[in-house]
Amino acid sequence: MSIREFLFAKRTHLMSLVFFVGFITDNIMLSRIDVLWSSLVLLAYLTIALMTVFFSALSRSRLVSGSLSERIVSWSPFVAQFAFGSLFSGYFVFYTRSASFTSSWLFVVLLGALFLGNEFFKNYYRRLEFQINILFVAIFFFATLYMPIVLGQMDAWVFLASGGVSLVGIILFMSFLSRIVPEVIRGMKVALRVSLGSVFVVINILYFTNIIPPIPLVLKEAGIYHLVLRTARGMYQAQTEHAPWYNLGARYHPIVHRTPGESLYFFSAVFAPARLSVPIFHEWQYFDSSKNEWVTTDRLQFQIVGGRDGGYRGYSVKGSVFAGEWRVRVVTERGQSLGQTKFTVVDVSTPPVLVTNPRN
Question: How many domains does the chain have?
Answer without folding.
Answer: 2
